[in-house]
Write a structure and sequence with these properties.
Belongs to the FGGY kinase family. The protein is of the alpha+beta class and 468 residues long. It contains 15 helices and 24 strands. It has a domain of 226 residues: 2-Layer Sandwich (Nucleotidyltransferase, domain 5). The structure holds adenosine-5'-diphosphate (ADP) and 5-O-phosphono-D-xylulose.
Length: 468
C-alpha cells in the first residue's frame, strides 16, 4: 500500500526547535516533537542543528519535503570553511543598539532607512550585529565570508550543504540589507555594516524548492511569516503571538515604510508584506513572575485571576531585558504602586496585565500604520495557553479575541510551504484553517491607562544616552 504524501515543518525559534510531520493533502498533523535550545541571547548556532536533527530524525525517511521557519534577524557569521566565527547574536541581544543608531544616521536618517530597507534599524536587525562585530571583534569580523539567518543555516544543513545557502524574501526583509519591494539584496549595506564584502544567500522564490534530490527542501522563512502561513491569515486579521517575543502582525498588499520605527515593514512568504510591531519581553514576563512567586504557570494564572482588574493599583513596566517597542534597549523592569497590603495575587495580576498592555500597545501601533486591521484578533504562542492571559486579553484589548487550538502554527506554516514546494503549484495548498474559540469580556481601559502612565513617566529615566 502506498503511504500518503507527508511533509515536515520545522520551527527553529528562540527557546526550542519544534517540528511537525504533516499529511500534505489536508494539513493533518500526524506527529509533533520538540528539543530545547541553549538559553541566552548569544548562542553557538551548531546547537540549533543538533536540535533540528533530534526532532527531524527518522521522519526524513517517511516524508517527501521539509521547510524551516526560524527566529528572525539572528546573525550567523561564517568563515571560509563554513564555521561560525562567533556565537550567533539573536534578535533579542541589545549589545548592537549604538551600532543601530550609527547605521541609521549613515543611511540618511530614520525615514531614509525605512524607505531603503522597509524598517528603521534597531538592535534586533542583522546589519547592526555585523557592525557590532566589526567594531568589537575585528579579528572575527575579518574572517567572515558569509552571513546567514538562523533559518538559512538550519535549511542549508538539511540540504546536506549540497547547494549554495539560500533564504527567502520574508526572512531576508529582517536583515537591514534587503529591499523587499524589489526582492533584492543591498550588498552595499551589508558590506558597509561589516567593513568588507560578504556573501549573502540566494533568494528562493516563494513556494519554490531550494534543493531537491529524493527529498525537497523548500526556501523556508522567518518564524512570524511561518505563523501567518500556518494560521491561514487573511488581510484584515491581526495576529498577536506571545512567545519569547510579543508580536502583532498583519498581512498587507502594499509595503510599509514607517519612519517612526514603530512598525517594521517585513515581507511575508507569499509575495505580500507582513508589517509588525514587536516586543522583546513577552512570555518571559510570566516565566520570571512564576519564578519569583515560586509557582508554576497554572498557579500563576489562579493567583492573577483572584486579584481585581488593576491589581489594587500595582503596575509593572515589563521591559526587563531592554525593549524595542518602545525603543528602550537598556531599560529594566520597574514596579509601581506597591503598598504594605499588596498581595501575591496583585503581583501575579500586574504581570499578566503588563504583558497584555504591552501587546495592546503593539496592536495599536500596527493598526495606526496599516489600514484595514479590522478583522479578527488572533492570539497564539506559548503563553497564549495561560488561562489568565486568555481571560484578561479581551478586557485589555477591548475587543473579542479569537484563540485557535494550541498548536505549533509556525511549524505548521513551514510544513505548508514544504507541501507548496513539493506540489509546484502557484499558491500554497488550501489546508482548512483552524477553528477558533471566541473570547469576550468587559473592557478595562483604566488598566491600560495606568500602564501607559508608568510607561510614559519612566521613558526618560530608562532611556540610555545614545552615542552616534
Ligand atoms: N501555560 C503557560 N503560561 C505561561 N507561559 C507559558 C505557558 N506555556 C508555555 N509558556 C511559555 O511560552 C514560551 C514558549 O513559547 P513559544 O511560542 O514556543 O516561544 P518561542 O517560539 O519564542 O521559542 C516559554 O517562555 C514558556 O514558558
Ligand atoms: O524579532 C522578532 C520579530 O521581528 C521576533 O519575533 C523573532 O522572530 C523571535 O520570535 P520568537 O522566538 O519569539 O517566536
Amino acid at each position: 500500500m502506498t503511504r500518503t504524501t507527508r511533509v515536515i515543518g520545522v520551527d527553529s525559534s528562540t527557546q526550542s526547535t519544534k517540528a511537525v510531520l504533516v499529511d500534505a493533502d489536508d494539513g493533518t498533523v500526524l506527529a509533533q516533537r520538540a528539543a530545547p535550545h541553549p538559553p541566552g541571547t548569544a548562542v553557538d548556532p551548531r546547537r540549533w542543528l543538533d536540535a533540528c536533527d533530534a526532532v527531524v530524525g527518522d521522519w526524513r525517511g517517511e516524508a517527501d519535503a521539509v521547510a524551516v521557519a526560524g527566529q528572525q534577524h539572528g546573525m550567523v557569521a561564517l568563515d571560509a570553511d563554513g564555521l561560525p566565527v562567533h556565537d550567533a547574536l539573536l534578535w533579542n541581544d541589545t549589545r548592537s543598539a549604538a551600532a543601530a543608531t550609527q547605521l541609521v544616521a549613515e543611511m540618511g536618517g530614520a525615514q531614509a532607512c525605512a524607505d531603503a530597507v522597509g524598517s528603521v534599524l534597531v538592535a534586533s536587525f542583522t546589519a547592526t550585529k555585523l557592525r557590532w562585530l566589526r567594531d568589537h571583534r575585528p579579528e572575527a569580523a575579518a574572517a567572515v565570508t558569509r552571513v546567514l539567518l538562523p533559518h538559512d543555516y538550519v535549511s542549508w544543513h538539511l540540504a546536506g550543504r549540497h547547494t549554495e545557502p539560500f533564504t527567502d524574501r520574508g526572512d531576508a526583509s529582517g536583515t537591514g540589507y534587503f529591499d523587499a519591494r524589489t526582492s533584492a539584496w543591498r550588498e552595499d549595506l551589508a558590506a558597509s555594516a561589516l567593513g568588507h564584502d560578504v556573501a549573502l544567500p540566494r533568494i528562493v522564490a516563494d513556494g519554490a524548492a531550494a534543493y531537491e534530490d529524493a527529498f525537497v527542501v523548500a526556501g523556508g522563512t522567518g518564524d512570524n511569516m511561518g505563523a501567518a502561513l500556518g494560521l491561514g491569515l487573511v488581510p484584515g486579521d491581526v495576529v498577536v503571538s506571545i512567545g519569547t517575543s510579543g508580536v502583532a502582525s498583519a498581512i498587507a498588499e502594499d509595503p510599509v515604510a514607517d519612519g517612526t520605527g514603530a512598525v517594521t515593514g517585513f515581507a511575508d512568504a507569499t509575495g505580500r508584506y507582513l508589517p509588525m510591531a514587536t516586543t522583546m519581553n513577552a512570555a518571559g514576563i510570566l516565566d520570571l513572575q512564576a519564578r519569583l512567586l515560586g509557582v508554576d504557570h497554572s498557579e500563576l494564572a489562579r493567583l492573577a485571576l483572584a486579584a481585581p482588574p488593576g491589581a489594587n493599583g500595582v503596575t509593572l513596566s515589563p521591559y526587563y531585558g531592554g525593549e524595542r517597542t518602545p525603543d528602550r534597549p537598556r531599560a529594566t523592569g520597574l514596579w509601581a504602586g506597591l503598598r504594605p497590603t499588596t498581595t501575591r495575587e496583585d503581583l501575579a495580576r500586574a504581570a499578566v496585565e503588563a504583558l497584555l498592555c504591552s501587546l495592546a500597545d503593539a496592536v495599536d501601533l500596527l493598526a495606526s500604520r496599516v489600514g484595514g486591521c479590522d478583522g479578527r484578533l488572533l492570539l497564539v504562542g506559548g503563553a497564549a495557553r495561560n488561562p489568565a492571559v486568555r481571560a484578561l486579553a479581551p478586557a485589555i484589548f477591548g475587543q473579542s479575541v479569537h484563540v485557535p487550538p494550541p498548536a505549533e502554527y509556525v511549524a505548521l506554516g513551514a510544513a505548508r510551504q514544504a507541501a507548496w514546494a513539493l506540489g509546484g503549484t502557484e499558491a500554497p495548498p488550501l489546508w482548512k484553517p483552524a477553528g477558533t474559540e471566541v473570547l469576550d469580556a468587559d473592557p478595562t481601559p483604566f488598566v491600560r491607562e495606568a500602564y501607559a502612565d508608568l510607561r510614559d513617566r519612566t521613558g526618560a529615566w530608562t532611556q540610555p544616552e545614545r552615542t552616534s
